[in-house]
Write a structure and sequence with these properties.
Strand content: under 5%
Strand order of the largest sheet: 1-2
Structural class: mainly alpha
Largest sheet: 2 strands, antiparallel
Distance between the termini: 32 Å
């Protein structure tokens, strides 16, 4: 993302580059114009509008990117619309046009309200909920638990209603004083629902309505439609053309020479020799009329069917036969010996592949093709499944998906004009499974959750319940959970100069609720158990990926609730890195030193853990700020020395704007901190689980690296991302290996050697320096740089300021 470095008397400052929205707009414009899928083009058009709003807001000074309050005169707690890169568009997610449930309520309460101004309408609705009738409605929703909080602001007046119900009128008035100035812009009331929130405790990826919308948007597959047309329309005409020319053959049917297993044999010239008679020698009396009828039929069919373009290709056999057929009808004397030889070769190839058109072999071949092409198209089945989903509440998940995924019934067959008992294809089943409701572990086991990022999306539904466990009153506890989950859906802002994202406690209505939270040892134990189970589940399912930032947010919240206070550190963006690390990174490195000293990890990455431990000392805060002017509250750890250590290990210096150099420095930080693995595995339960599973996790990492590095990538930038992710997986593999005994490591290396020997020789050659580097780190002495050069061994790192040595040559 674009940044500008600005130097002033206070040191280096960072600001967002307004060219970044223009770049994103250009990318979206290209997609909107060129992408083959209509849904993707429509989505790209929406992105263009959002980026246009963002750029206009920045140009007009309405939005200042980089701070906690980028929109002028809007408080930090207001939920902003944020696009890629953390850029705020200037829109408020709790504002804008009235939603359908708001319009319904407005028509009910004030059908005579003669204004279309949204600000007036929304102010009316907010103030209605402060009347006796409105408060009664809110309190009824609280009691019945029939409401939805999509953005955090929608829970504010529910908190007010609960406070008044408890007799806390002073607290309610104080909260309203802060909210009232925003009554005309933001909705502070929830979305009413028919089903209680407590009946929806388990997690799901998408609502029924979202899945149904996705299914309804599925369009016919152009390739499958073209294939069906080729089989059903053009293949029969092709067979007729072959039959017509076979009628003109004098002698045996032309065929190609083939060996015992049917493989065609080439002659000395490299061509396929044809045996049998020659075509265009005898023309039956009605042959010309039948040939003309075939050409006429083709022309008529072509006007109606144009999905398959193969019959029009000049080198296609059917196209060539039609041209020769027209020539035989109009001027047979113009055929040359070369033309007749070409017709003979086409016929021979056809007969060798299928048999003559009237043969049983050819008819069975065409029947198999027809069976494949006559299947019901996916987009038609998707409409049936979407109709089934419409019978369920659209804003919830499903406890069972089996009724939705059943085969087509007789009634549906009549309504949708498709065969009975047609099954739902696997691709559609996967889409429907996204609204399946269940425990997190069950969804992972069923393959519904396919990445750590997906776990991050679901975990707030669980974390909110744990953090709310300290609230004794049931309706308030459920409300806290709803607001928490909505807050976690907020997208992070692009923040510069060490600013911190808005915290949950900064929401005024949540700050009031926190006063009613007690101290619960049960909640602490539950939070720690959930953290450990989530970590185990994530590492077991996706050991090759680093913990994504969104998931780290939830793990950090669980860590705080469990009073563990683990030093979890997010992945930093290389393009906005400011050259320094906060104290939690140093703390994480020191904790890693206590876990990994004397292990394979220390030897492989040549880490001086004594130097890392020495960073745990008080330092002069004035010195820190003179070197890193935006660092704050870092006196406990020597963050400046840690940053210098990362730069020294990377072999580069921070100071010039280079994403690659920044990435090299950040990667060394991740090596020193293990990027949260040591911290997350520090509890006794996690240490025990890791000792039992580390060998399996390491094998999964190695297998993924082999697959990833051999997976073709379309563009250069994708290749860089491929290398970075493979190096991260390799680092996690080394960490897991460091938890094993020497005998287990030997078993792992024997397994690796057998896997490597099964890989293509070119890949073995590419990976050999990495394998030598790992093998040489297994003994008790670390490998020096000179020894590595002499032995052509190296460490697997993902970032490089030059062309990465693992990238294949462009001509390979």
């Amino acid at each position: 993302m674009g940044l500008d470095n600005q130097m002033g008397d206070g040191g280096m400052n960072m600001s967002a580059n307004a060219g970044y929205p223009l770049l994103q707009m250009a990318k979206a414009l290209t997609t909107a114009q060129q992408h083959e899928e209509v849904a993707t083009r429509i989505q790209a058009e929406k992105k263009i509008l959002k980026w246009a709003e963002t750029f206009a807001a920045m140009a007009n000074g309405l939005v200042t990117i980089g701070g906690r309050t980028p929109v002028a005169d809007v408080p930090a707690w207001a939920t902003l619309e944020v696009v890629k890169g953390g850029f705020a568009t200037g829109n408020l997610l709790a504002g804008g046009s009235l939603l359908s449930h708001e319009l319904t309520l407005l028509r009910e309460l004030a059908p005579e309200l003669e204004t279309d101004e949204v600000s007036v309408q929304r102010h009316f609705l907010n103030t209605y909920f402060l009347t006796d009738e409105g408060l009664g409605r809110l309190q009824g929703w609280l009691q019945a638990e029939c409401y939805e909080v999509v953005v955090p602001e929608e829970g504010a007046l529910l908190v007010v209603a609960w406070l008044l119900q408890q007799g806390c009128s002073a607290m309610a008035r104080s909260l309203l004083t802060e909210l009232a100035p925003w009554f005309s812009r933001l909705r502070f009331y929830p979305v009413p629902t028919q089903r209680s929130r407590s009946a929806r405790a388990q997690v799901y990826l998408q609502t029924v309505g979202e899945v149904a919308t996705k299914l309804q948007s599925i369009e016919p597959n152009a390739q499958i439609a073209a294939q069906a047309e080729a089989i059903q329309i053009w293949a029969p005409l092709y067979d007729q053309a072959v039959s017509l020319f076979l009628e003109t053959v004098e002698g045996d049917v032309p065929t190609l020479k083939a060996d015992a297993d049917g493989t065609w044999q080439r002659g000395a010239s490299g061509r396929f020799p044809v045996q049998g008679g020659w075509p265009c020698r005898n023309y039956p009396t009605d042959w010309i009329a039948r040939g003309q009828a075939l050409l006429t039929q083709y022309a008529q069919q072509r006007q109606q069917h144009s999905r398959c373009n193969r019959p029009d290709k000049a080198k296609d056999s059917f196209a060539q036969l039609r041209r020769y057929l027209l020539q035989c009808i109009c001027a047979p004397q113009s055929l040359t010996g070369l033309d007749v030889g070409r017709i003979r070769l086409i016929l021979a190839r056809y007969v060798n592949k299928r048999g003559v058109p009237s043969s049983t072999q050819c008819q069975l071949f065409r029947q198999r093709q027809q069976a494949q092409a006559s299947g019901t198209p996916f987009h038609e089945i998707a409409q049936v499944v979407a109709a089934r989903l419409s019978q369920y509440p659209k804003n919830e998940g499903l406890d069972r998906v089996e009724p939705v995924l059943a085969s087509i019934t007789e009634a549906e067959s009549k309504r949708w004009s498709m065969p009975v008992d047609v099954g739902v294809p696997l691709t559609l089943r996967r889409k429907v499974n996204r609204c399946l409701r269940g425990s997190m572990s069950a969804l992972v086991a069923r393959g519904v959750v396919t990445s750590a990022e997906t776990i991050a999306r679901l975990l707030p539904q669980i974390t909110g319940e744990i953090k709310a466990a300290a609230v004794n009153e049931p309706s308030l506890r459920l409300l806290y959970t709803a607001i928490y989950s909505a807050f976690r859906r907020r997208r992070s802002l692009l923040l510069l100069n060490f600013e911190k994202q808005v915290q949950l406690e900064e929401l005024p209505w949540l700050a009031v609720v926190n006063r009613f939270r007690g101290r619960s040892l049960g909640a602490r134990a539950l939070a720690q158990t959930t953290l450990e189970e989530t970590t185990q589940m994530t590492l077991a399912a996706f050991p090759h990926t680093i913990i994504p930032n969104k998931l780290l947010q939830e793990m950090h919240a669980l860590s705080q609730s469990a009073k563990l206070n683990l030093p979890l550190s997010e992945e930093l963006a290389a393009d906005i890195f400011m050259g320094s690390f906060s104290a939690k990174f140093v703390q994480a490195a020191i904790q890693s030193a206590s876990v990994l000293s004397g292990t394979l990890y220390e030897r492989y990455y040549a880490i001086d853990y004594e130097k890392v431990r020495s960073l745990n000392r008080p330092v002069n805060s004035r010195t820190v700020r003179s070197r890193f002017p935006f660092a704050r509250n870092q006196q406990r750890f020597d963050t400046a020395a840690f940053s210098a250590l990362c730069q020294s290990r990377s072999g580069v210096s921070y100071g010039q704007y280079s994403t690659a150099i920044n990435g090299m420095i950040i990667e060394q930080q991740q090596i020193l901190t293990t990027h949260n693995l040591a911290a997350l595995c520090s509890t006794p339960a996690m240490a025990s689980w890791l000792s039992s599973n580390a060998l399996s996790l390491a094998k999964q990492c190695f297998g993924w690296v082999c697959w990833r590095l051999q997976h073709p990538v379309p563009i250069w930038h994708a290749g860089l991302i491929q290398l970075k992710k493979a190096a991260y997986s390799w680092r996690q593999m080394v960490f897991f290996l460091s938890m094993l005994s020497a005998a287990q490591v030997d078993d792992f290396m024997a397994w690796v050697n057998s896997r490597i020997s099964a890989q293509p020789s070119t890949f073995q050659q590419r990976l050999s320096p990495v394998m030598r580097g790992l093998q040489l780190a297994i003994p008790t002495q670390p490998l020096t740089q000179r020894q590595a050069l002499e032995l052509e061994a190296c460490r697997f790192l993902g970032w490089s300021k030059n062309r990465h040595w693992l990238m294949e040559d462009a001509t390979a």
